[in-house]
Design goal:
The complex is a heterodimer. By secondary structure, chain A is mainly β. Chain A has one domain (15-158): Lipocalin, CATH 2.40.128. Chain A is 13% helix and 56% strand. In chain A, a hairpin with a 2-residue loop joins strand 8 and strand 9. Chain B is mainly beta. Chain B has one domain: Porin. Chain B has 5 helices and 16 strands. Chain B has helices spanning 2-12, 46-56, 68-73, 143-148, 191-194; strands spanning 87-100, 108-124, 130-138, 155-165, 170-177, 204-213, 216-225, 236-246, 250-260, 264-276, 282-294, 301-312, 318-328, 336-346, 352-364, 373-383. Chain B starts with a helix and ends with a strand. Classes of the chains: A mainly beta, B mainly beta. Chain A binds chain B through residues 26, 29-36, 68-74, 142-145, and chain B through 26-30, 32-33, 45-47, 50-51, 54-55, 59, 67-69, 71-72, 127-128, 168, 212, 217, 248-249, 279-280.
Amino acid sequence: MKKTFLNLILLLVPIQSFAEGSIQIAVKLTPAGSFVAKSERLKGDLTRNQGEISSQKLSVSLDSFKTGMSLRDEHFCKHLGCESQPKAVLSGLKASGGKGTGSLELNGVKRDISFNYEDKDSMIVAKFELNSTDFKMPHAKYLGVEVSDVVSVEVRVPAPKK
Amino acid sequence: MMRAVLAIAMLMAPGLASAYPQFIGHGYPSCMNCHYNPMGNGPLTDYGRAVGADGIASGALYPKSWSEEKVADLSGFLFRTPVQKHFRVQANYRGMEMVSSVGTPSERWSWIHMQAGGQLILKFLENDRLTFVGEVGYNPSSNSAKATGQDKRKLRTREHYVGFRITPEVGVYAGLMDKAYGIRVAEHIAFSRILPEMTQNDQTHGVMIHGLFEGWEGALHGFVGNLLQAKDLRQVGASAQIERQLFTDHRLGMSLLSSKNDYVKMLSYSLHTRLSLSEGSALLLEAGQTERISLGSRGDRIGRYALLQTYTRPVRGLYCLTNIEYMKSDLSSAATTVRWGPGIQYFPVQKLELRTDLYQTRTFNPNASTQDGWTILFQTNVWL
């Protein structure tokens, strides 16, 4: 009886995850090439509630992104506006059935975004594209090599099912 | 004896051409970002020099007060930031201490000047769509040239061409340059460069069309031979190389080359792949075949080769490499040569490369017995 009661409580109480997640941003270069900016310092929590996933706030420090080249790390951080707003913040995240929405604040600009996600065991893997011009970032170019305005983002957040 | 050592040195010396296709491991599958020649090799673009300073060279020896931005600003000629955009000068020197016949009574140490040259680049229009590239450098005489008293030129140009990007995707290049074929590894002694005749002095005058599209890169090269050579020796023909991008940073490619002069007709073809193992590490693999048909006399032969190179980057500035090569220069012969060895490539600061290679060369031949050859190379490459 006690066990049944406990199970019932576990079903009714939302499951929360507080572990750090990761973000990968795939960036294309012109005339050729690409790089991936990675951060393992995504902070925030996901809540599971009867098939729905939600989060009040996920954030990542922009200076935590590593691109495989120190100078590029600096340029990446500055380009994302880390000097005026050191963190990217995703708030009001709601997701179910493989699709989700949220509000992303970056470079002092807040915009709604939508994404697709997969629920892989105890990990939520969300993918979406961002256009940097939507966040008032200038077109990036360094010594003749240009950076694509549209980048592909993959977010991984631990979310235990129980 | 000295002549023989020099001749071997010229054969063994890697890296006369500073092409580093392994930098696909840094997210650069195409050579175009860092070199004016879209197929790699030759003078570096401003971006390529900055990448060399910040991404390739170790940061450990720079003063702690230096920012990465300052390091990049020092990547210009003579450590200066270019103040205008149309004119660039570059210079480089590559020398090598070679230890041959290691561990035998005839072990010998000798210093070889491999390359000392200057490059001039003129560039115009938006995004440097129009470029003129010229190079002149020291020309070490080969043993055979010395013996015959020929090839007394002490200066040689290995590259001079004009390039025009019609669109960002398509460009036309005309002049003296390397043929578009295979993986342009730094080691011009690689069997994959010797058999199809793609070594340090095999450049040709011609016209190359280069294309870079989403997921594809390739070049079609028509050539008339090196116009500084005697007419009967000039290899006239065409080559093509195409690469398909796989996933993000992997390439799978194929090449074809057909040419002839008054004495020989050549047909070469190869398959290759360049795989990024991330964080600066990479794997290069090429396998090919060359058919040589003698015109007017006997001596036709078909040769086969393979190359496997791995590069791993434990820390910034340091690359550990492994080189394994196979060559059967004549399929009708019983002899097969295998060369392998580890190496270390270190960029302690920008504009300086130190490299050590150990090579063991073994010939397998049921009809003859030969001793393994052991060679150690200590290379220094400086560019300004």
